[in-house]
Amino acid sequence: MTGKERRKKILELIRNSKTPISGTEIAKICGVSRQIVVQDIALLRAEENNIYSTTRGYLIDSPKKYRRIFCVSHTDEEIEEELNSIVDLGGTVLDVFVEHKLYGDIRAELNINSRKKIKEFVEKLKIGNISPLKNLTSSKHYHTIEAESEEILTLIEEELIKKNLLVKDKEEF
Question: What local confidence, expressed as pLDDT, does residue 129 receive?
Answer without folding.
Answer: 78
